[in-house]
Design goal:
Elements: H1 2-19, E1 23-26, E2 29-33, E3 39-44, E4 50-52, E5 56-57, E6 60-65, E7 77-79, E8 86-87, E9 100-102, E10 109-110, E11 123-125, E12 132-133, E13 146-148, E14 155-156, E15 169-171, E16 178-179, E17 192-194, E18 201-202, E19 215-217, E20 224-225, E21 238-241, E22 247-248, E23 260-264, H2 268-275, E24 281-285, H3 293-299
Parallel strand pairs: 3-6, 4-7, 6-8, 7-9, 8-10, 10-12, 11-13, 12-14, 15-17, 16-18, 18-20, 19-21, 20-22, 21-23, 23-24
Antiparallel strand pairs: 1-2, 2-3, 5-6
């Protein structure tokens, strides 16, 4: 009996050792080895402010930046090598001296709040292979003036540009089907957003408090507009609600009194405007009737 118990204990010990996560320290980086045999950086103990992340630690190829790895760091410039495929949650959050980051060509996805409150970051360009950007990834990047989103982006979390107060324009790629909640909320310098016809849904407060936004032309097939989508957009003077809309949330134009809204006769959008607390001017178009282009360009 004792021999059997001893053998079971040995077996369990061997199993736990086999599945234990290997950890290491090299070149001022601590890391762990993932199930696929590549390494993920956990912490950086160096004092440099301009760095290129390691491609290899010991004998392991590095492919990701771990959760909170560089959060609140004094880093100013970072270059991430080619083979990195993932940047983890909070990876650079609060690094308010970070002004430049070169993302790797193989980057597939970026975790939530990865660059949140990097207040010195002025531009960021995602490589073409990136398909996912987590919620609040760039929230509070108040110096951000240029963003290039990848052409095949399909997953975008809530509020990724929230309170990016210097960003003037954003081009949403054709691959996106929705604008998540709070995506552009609080972007006080935002003047234009290109939304492709692929977009069918706009989330809660997606454009709320965009106080410089003057004109919005929604994609032709948008069917859902979330509550307070354009609330407190105090410069907004023109918006067209397409006939495809079948679900419009409460108070999408909250606190706006001068906006002019166009909708097609007998459409859900027209009924919404006429029956809601909308305080602006309503223009009802006959089905097939075009908007007055002179009005559009004067207003925009």
């Amino acid at each position: 009996m004792r021999n059997k118990i001893f053998l079971i204990l040995v077996f369990l010990l061997l199993c736990s050792s086999a599945f234990a996560q290997k950890r290491g320290f090299s070149m001022n980086y601590s890391y762990h080895v993932k199930k696929d045999g590549t390494a993920e950086i956990d912490t950086f103990l160096g004092s440099e402010r301009v760095i290129t992340l390691p491609a290899i630690l010991d004998e392991y190829v590095v492919t990701s930046v771990g959760v909170g790895c560089f959060a609140n760091s004094p880093l100013e410039e970072v270059t991430i090598p080619y083979d990195y495929t993932y940047i983890g949650e909070n990876a650079f959050k609060g690094s308010n001296s970070l002004r430049k980051i070169d993302l790797p060509e193989m980057l597939n996805s970026v975790g939530p709040s990865a660059f949140e409150n990097c207040t010195a970051l002025s531009s960021i360009s995602f490589p073409p292979v990136t398909y996912g950007i987590g919620e609040y990834a760039l929230r509070g990047c108040t110096s951000l003036t240029k963003v290039i989103l990848p052409p095949d982006l399909t997953e975008m979390g809530n509020g990724i540009f929230q309170n990016c107060t210097a960003l003037v324009g954003v081009i949403i790629p054709e691959s996106m089907l929705y604008i998540p909640d709070y995506t552009f909320c609080g972007m006080t310098s935002l003047r234009y957003v290109h939304m492709p016809d692929s977009v069918v849904s706009i989330g809660w407060s997606a454009f709320a408090d965009c106080t410089s936004l003057a004109t919005v032309v929604l994609p032709e097939y948008v069917s859902i507009i979330g509550p307070q989508a354009f609330a407190r957009c105090t410069s907004l003077n023109f918006v067209f609600l397409p006939e495809s809309c079948i679900d419009i949330g409460a108070d999408i134009f909250s606190e706006l009194t001068t906006v002019v809204a166009f909708a097609v006769k007998d459409s859900y959008a027209a009924q919404y405007l006429q029956q809601s607390k909308f305080k602006g001017v309503i223009f009802i178009l006959e089905r097939g009737e075009k908007m007055d282009e002179d009005f559009y360009f004067e207003s925009g």
